[in-house]
């Protein structure tokens, strides 16, 4: 398997985290590739053979189609087979709504084929390839109009700065938004609550700490990551990664 991440044009960085691709060759054994929540949403283009993705249900991604994956609140398994070729656009929180006017309310943990009216794959295709990074950059730059992302990105920045450990009322107050408006903003644009985003960011921080630990105990990591105790840490690690902390 070959996995690659590519940085978009600088003018797209407020909206897009990266482009990514996964490829396999011929005569490879089927393998499962697990993806964990990262507070982003993706558009995935299948330029290879049909691919199966499992979350709370099973999805089949057919060749030549583009799919929208909502904000993830649990892990996702992709079965990689011969000649798999997936190309993804990983949108930052609020990036998809600001750039493509796609709102993710009700889309958490789902995968749906995109409509041409919101993401027209045919305009990106050439005789040589279904899609290229260059064509994606040009297409998405043409959509840069909505500057709401300049208001929203600082909110995510504050959550990341605190590793998810900040009360929602404090977060709303710091950004001069009422709590009710704040929750509506997250549900409409991201399809999940602000608390869920904070929980995922906290999980990501703890997950990295566990993977890279040398001498720290899991209890120490639980406390430094903002969890009440070892059991609280274990519950979140299992929810988001499907594994126990000791097995990472």
Question: Please, could you describe this protein's structure?
Answer:
InterPro entries: AraC_XylS_family_regulators (IPR050204), DUF6597 (IPR046532), Homeodomain-like_sf (IPR009057), HTH_AraC (IPR018060). It comes from Xanthocytophaga agilis. This protein has 2 domains: 2-141, Sandwich (Jelly Rolls), CATH 2.60.120.10; 149-247, Orthogonal Bundle (Arc Repressor Mutant, subunit A). Helices cover 34% and strands 21% of the residues. The protein has 8 helices and 10 strands. The strands form 2 sheets. It has a 6-stranded antiparallel β-sheet, with no helix packed on it. The radius of gyration is 19 Å and the shape is globular.
Please sum up the structure shown:
The chain is of the alpha+beta class and 248 residues long. It has helices at 95-100, 133-141, 149-161, 168-174, 179-190, 194-211, 218-224, 230-241, and strands at 2-6, 16-23, 31-35, 41-46, 51-54, 58-61, 66-69, 76-80, 85-91, 111-113. It has two domains: 2-141, Jelly Rolls, CATH 2.60.120; 149-247, Arc Repressor Mutant, subunit A (Orthogonal Bundle), CATH 1.10.10.60.
């Amino acid at each position: 398997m070959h996995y690659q991440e590519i940085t978009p044009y600088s003018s797209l960085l407020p909206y897009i985290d990266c482009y990514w691709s996964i490829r396999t060759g011929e005569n490879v054994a089927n393998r499962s590739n697990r993806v964990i929540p990262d507070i982003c949403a993706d558009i995935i283009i299948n330029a290879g053979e049909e691919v199966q993705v499992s979350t709370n249900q099973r999805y089949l991604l057919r060749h030549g189609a583009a799919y929208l994956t909502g904000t993830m609140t649990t892990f996702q398994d992709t079965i990689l087979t011969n000649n798999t070729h997936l190309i993804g656009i990983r949108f930052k929180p609020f990036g998809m709504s600001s750039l493509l006017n796609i709102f993710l309310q009700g889309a958490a943990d789902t995968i749906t084929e995109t409509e041409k009216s919101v993401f027209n794959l045919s305009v990106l295709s050439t005789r040589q390839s279904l899609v290229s990074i260059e064509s994606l950059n040009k297409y998405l730059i043409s959509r840069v109009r909505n500057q709401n992302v300049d208001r929203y990105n600082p909110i995510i920045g504050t959550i990341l700065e605190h590793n998810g450990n900040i009360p929602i009322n404090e977060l709303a107050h710091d950004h001069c938004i009422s709590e009710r408006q704040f929750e509506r903003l997250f549900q409409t644009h991201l399809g999940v609550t602000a608390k869920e985003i904070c929980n995922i960011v906290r999980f990501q921080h703890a997950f990295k700490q566990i993977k890279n630990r040398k001498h720290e105990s899991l209890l120490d990591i639980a406390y430094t990551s903002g969890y009440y105790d070892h059991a609280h840490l274990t519950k979140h690690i299992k929810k988001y990664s499907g594994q126990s902390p000791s097995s990472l």
